Amino acid sequence: MNIVRKDIDQNNAILTLQIEKNDYAERVEKTLRDYRKKANIPGFRPGMVPVGLIKKMYGKAVAAEEINKMISDELYKYIRENNINMLGEPLPNETEQKELDLNSDETLEFVFDLGIAPEFEVELNKKDKVKYYQIAVSDEMIENQIKSYTGRYGKYVQEDTVEEKDMVKGSLLEMANGKVNEDGIKVKDAVLTPAYIKDEAVKAQFTGAKKGDTITFNPATALVDAAEISSLLKISKDEAKEITADFSMTIDGITRYHEAEVNQELFDKVYGEGVVTSEEDFKARIKANIEQTLAADSDYKFGIDAREVVLAKFDGLTFPDAFLKRWVKTTNENLTDETLEADYPKMIADLKWQLIKDKIAKANDIKIENADVEAYAEKITRAQFAQYGMVGIDDEIVQNYAKDMLKKEDTLKSIIEKVAEEKVFEVIKNTVKLDTKEVSVEDFNKMFEN
Prior knowledge:
Blueprint: E1 2-7, E2 12-20, H1 21-38, H2 51-81, E3 86-92, E4 107-116, E5 129-135, H3 139-152, E6 155-158, E7 167-176, E8 179-180, E9 186-192, H4 200-206, E10 214-217, H5 219-222, H6 226-233, H7 237-241, E11 247-258, H8 264-271, H9 279-312, H10 321-331, H11 337-363, H12 370-387, H13 395-406, H14 409-431, E12 433-439, H15 441-446
Parallel strand pairs: 5-12
Antiparallel strand pairs: 1-2, 2-4, 3-4, 6-11, 7-8, 7-9, 7-11, 10-11
Helix pairs in contact: 1-2, 3-9, 12-13, 12-14
């Protein structure tokens, strides 16, 4: 076999592979012998089918298959051994490829187009400036987080007098002509909250009422919504739409939610027993947690800005555009020319960024260890818990969640890519000059509105 490379320009090349019959004949014969051992053809015992018949039946297909395997193996071996930084996959040449005849051609010639990545080096220094937005933690943010904790770790208490946000539980009886309708609707454990009552007069009847009091009202005017009436009276929505009667409710219980006090009990529930022992430490810990979350947001924005700055340094890079568009269409049969043309600039920007990241990673000997992947998965897990106000979770619980996360192949691949990108951004951050600016969270969020 012989391979010849012809460079069209710095981004395009043609590889011509010449294969002689002797190159693949032995492989074809071996495969046909294997076919003969396994062939099940009527009139012949297994393994006794004449070789000539096997060749007649399968020879051409086997030859084509073995030639394809050889082409693929030799093509990629040549690319690897010659350190060709190929983009996409080799494509059959559309103009120089001749028709082939396996029966008569002693020499088979296959012509492939190659797309080649541009040659460049990434050199960053303190002359390269990237903005870094440090988000300030305000007292309001700390107080809001404390309020979130006091609300989450509060408790329900039975009360004697109704307030607007209380849950009032009691027995509901349908009325008729000022008396209980014995054939009417009866609900033993009805529950309502005055805050949801639309009729202000009815709301006033409940507010200030005491356990044991009986209040008469009309659900149709008090609640209006059929779904709410249905839930209160435990009937269907269609039946609820027909309700016009008054109901009496005798209050059996009044339940009020009390937010937790800011004390040692709350500290222990949030961060674990004895970890925080004063309100000052509590606020400091909350601030640190918020700063950690905001730092991740700042790093995210830095990544966007750093990518733009670095990409701008390589505006002059050229790519095998025609080849890449052809390759993309080959791998995406449903892609229209219009969509391809519209999306192509972003595709090139993503490709360019990937090449730049690879250069930085190689130059700085960046490696992704299992410990890096596990640590990132645990970071994601803790962030997910934190969204629900769950901080101070035991390490073992976090690690188990993270391990389950990494069992999913797509998730594992995504995390590996994220870890690699984080390490590249860390190199950039330590190499360029950071134009650090402190901003409020409101101003920071405005940057993402457009």
